[in-house]
Amino acid sequence: MSEKKSVFADGPVLLDTPAKMLTVLTELVADDATTWRGMIDVWDTGNGAAWRVELNDDKSNQVSAKQGQYLVLTYGRLLVLDADEV
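== Periplasmic protease ==
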């Protein structure tokens, strides 16, 4: 049986859609939410919707990434990168 490939397996993950944010959140939280917890926010900017994913780990590390940014999972920590950093 083949194991499911991680969304982080190919390097930085572009958060280009709300669906990709949900994919990241779902993979990290998995079935029990003991290591990662998080939420997705959306609000009106007057010029369309803005999306953000917020993630917290069990060591009180918190990251917040907006649509268009990248997430990297390295050594169990999440890093947020902008396009010019990838």
